[in-house]
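Continuing the batch. This is chain 6 of the set; chains 1 through 5 are on the previous pages. Same settings as before, nothing changed between runs. Recording input and output for traceability.
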Amino acid sequence: MNVNAFFRISFVLMLSSASLSTATDKPVRVDASRDLRLAVVDASRPSKASDAQYAAFADSLGEAVSKQCGSTIGVKFKRVSADNAAFNLGTGVYDAVLVVSSAIPRPLMIAEVSRQSAILGAGKSEKKLYFLFGTSDAALASLLAASFSVALDNQKFLDTLNDPDGHAAPAGQKLASAGP
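Output for chain 6:
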């Protein structure tokens, strides 16, 4: 081995060991959360009433999931476009997507996604909801599947539903249908 090659190899090894020692000296910090992340897709114009509905649904879903888990689980929601929801559901940024629409938007027609639907109300106040979540994590998928109808039947959520005139939904309004 010539002297130049020896010095190059020694220099590379010294740099490698120096970078490893500095990397291990720095504390590694991992931010974790017990909250589920929910994307909301709604083509209608944003309003305080719709934001209140999404917040109430997120709270209701959190309560339903918490009952099954035996510990408190929160749900954070964010209103996004269908393209954003589809991409980020696929990459794991969101755990689930709630779609408020007459049909599931084309970008959300993803193969490995479970879909549940519900119709709330009747007549002009009818709302169609779709709940989508990935199937790669079987435990999470099972948990979300069992929690959707429970969350929809939560009275706090039902109280936030508005009719077209903006009046509160009648007390005792129930889920019209839910299923895959």
